[in-house]
Write a structure and sequence with these properties.
164 residues; 8 strands; 30% helix; binds 2-acetamido-2-deoxy-beta-D-glucopyranose
Length: 164
């Protein structure tokens, strides 16, 4: 029990410290970039922050990944892509490195069936404020100071509490 509580505390701390880290999204989750996935639904519960990445995994013999503007996204026009992200392996990585909306479609007719993705890239949220310590040192030092404390307390608990 004690061990578990300490582990949870340590993990929570790590999660907080990782707050500002970039996320790599596999577009469509385990379905990937394909037909019969509603990418509006896939994207709607996610936050995309500047510095995150999109990873398109798909059948390289059929689909592709084109970044287009909002007009061409709406009409599925693949004639004037802003960026052709297709590299040929069916594994394309797109850095979301500008805070703006991004629009992706597959050409070759698949966009008409719903193979289109719009994401709104936002500025990353500010790093979490350290509530346990008032006047905490800058976040870069937080891990080095708090984590040893957590582990030290954990070691004490382990020494005295052996109830599971
Ligand atoms: C998208 O690009 C097309 C073709 O270049 C252009 O006609 C259209 O106005 C553009 N739409 C936007 C919203 O910029
Ligand atoms: C996109 O780039 C790939 C690889 O260079 C190329 O084979 C393909 O024809 C391009 N597609 C479009 C629509 O420009
Ligand atoms: C974003 O990434 C693209 C592709 O790697 C690159 O060409 C572009 O310069 C980058 N833009 C910024 C603002 O970093
Ligand atoms: C995806 O789902 C949204 C919300 O339910 C719906 O408005 C939209 O028409 C769907 N798109 C496709 C291509 O089915």
């Amino acid at each position: 029990m004690a061990r578990m509580a300490v582990t949870m505390a340590a993990l929570t701390m790590v999660a907080l410290l990782r707050g500002a880290e970039a996320t790599r999204f596999i577009v469509g989750g385990n379905m990937g970039w394909t037909t019969n996935v509603n990418y509006t639904v896939w994207a709607q519960d996610k936050h995309f922050y500047n510095g995150d990445w999109l990873f398109f995994v798909y059948d390289r013999n059929q689909m592709n990944v084109l970044e287009v503007n909002s007009t061409d996204y709406a009409s599925c026009n693949s004639d004037n892509p802003i960026t052709n992200w297709t590299r040929g392996a069916g594994r394309d990585v797109v850095p979301l490195n500008v805070t703006r909306p991004y629009y992706f479609i597959s050409g070759k007719g698949f966009c008409y069936g719903g193979m289109k993705l719009a994401v709104k890239v936002e500025n990353p949220p500010p790093p979490p404020v350290a509530s346990p310590l008032n006047g905490a040192p800058p976040s870069i030092y937080r891990g080095t100071i708090i984590l040893p404390t957590v582990f030290a307390i954990g070691a004490m608990w382990d020494a005295f509490v052996w109830v599971w």
